[in-house]
Predict the structure.
Amino acid sequence: MKFEEVLRKASDVAQSAINSANGVAQSAINKVNEKADEIERLENYKNIITSHEAEIESIYRSLGVKVLESGFFAEEAKKVETLKKEIKTCESEILAHYGLKKCEACEAEVSIDSNFCPNCGAKINLQ
Ligand SMILES: [Zn+2]
């Protein structure tokens, strides 16, 4: 065999190996892309579930408020009011720690030394 022929054969073998490697690489890339698409599809389902569950919870909350306001569940409504008062007390304690209190008119946080709310101008009651 002539030297040129040997070189051509070697070149053909190398090209064939490159083509084969490209095929394997492309196949791997396709598989990765398919997996990514599948993961994205499943993530979309999870997002739909999360969003719908949040909407259902919101409807339940809204219904719960309406049921409590209907007056048919006085004991539960009273308990909710008690819990709300306790939350307010806890919030006031936290604000007081930072030298603040809430304006009763607009709920803005104002300095505990303020006589008037800088946000709405309402008189701040000393407690
Ligand atoms: Zn205010």
